[in-house]
Protein: Class I SAM-dependent methyltransferase
Amino acid sequence: MQGWFGLIEQRLEALPLSVALEWPGGQAGRSDAQVRLRLNEPRWMGALARGQIGALADAYVQQRLEIEGGMRDVMAVAASLVGDPVAAGERPAWQQWLGRWHSRWRHRKNRDARQIEFHYDVSDDFYALWLDPRRVYSCAYFREPEMTLAQAQEAKLDHICRKLDLQPGQRFLDIGAGWGGLLLWAAERYGVHATGITLSKNQHAYVNRLIEERGLRGRVTMHLMDYRDVPEDQPYDRIASVGMFEHVGRAQLAAYFAKIRRLLRPGGLVMNHGITAAGLYNAQLGGGMGDFIEKYIFPGGELEHVSRVAQALCEGGLELLDAESLRPHYARTLWAWSDGLERQLDRARELTREQTVRAYRLYLAGCAMSFERGWISLFQLLAARPSGCVEDGPMRGAQSAYPFNRSYMYR
Structure:
């Protein structure tokens, strides 16, 4: 204990703001500290001294330690303790191979369905506490700095529809349609025939209720279905995949994009919007934060650097046309979600378990901090299935619906 205490004193002195620490039989730090940590068991002193933030987060969820202070202050302390995970360096080749092998068996259909149910079927009302009214559970697009979260989410939906150049009468597929925000926006604002799929029973039921309430039967359909099971006999003009490919697994990415190519008519466009790793060799956040998210939030989630995503996309037979980073937008989105949850903690505890509330408090604020600091990123990748090319051959003379410049996205 004495050895840990010396290391912890050094840690506390080096932090960017004041932290008080209490444990059975002792305390350290100022009484007016901005952040207070109360350890119910002395054994967590070692994790604190080593900067093992994931272990401390796990202890907080299990109510073995308590945290007091604003979430931005708490995350400033966490960031200082863990250091920069992107600067950790290259993983050995055997670790990269092992990661790909592990990814192959962990993303079978029944396993993916259980993992999605674990996350999205917590409670619709719980998510409604801190999401916007459309329940868009992905990065917003703050086109104007003064936008509210709700306005920025609508701007994001429109940004995707514009990038895809949606036209009335087109067949549109939304893979991982969530609570239907993009699906309904595309149908009502752009006149497409929209089909959505999800593995979440709660989301499937919720969207089908909206379809009935809005009189969209015949124009919008929502299926409880794995992307691998979508029929390929009637190709789509446009496809969107928003916040979905993170669940696919790095070993399946090329096959995922190949499936999208088969679902897309020649010349058609696809938008892939999702979280990417910030470093080439950082598959998850450091300090054990990635393990914490895997355990409590997104089991089976895997991140790849955008360069590897682009490679898999091309291996799947698609042509990359446009790439846009929305990393700062996701930091602001996540802080808005975090603030929304903090304002509704009492109600959140009525809707779900205390353990879930604690996990999401750390998850939302921790991810906001990670996007803010560039530890993880997010990209929108616009691609096409080229027309006029030999199957699996070169794309000489290939064409798509993509105009010659980006002006159509912003008109």
Notes: Residues 129 and 344 are 7 Å apart (CA to CA).
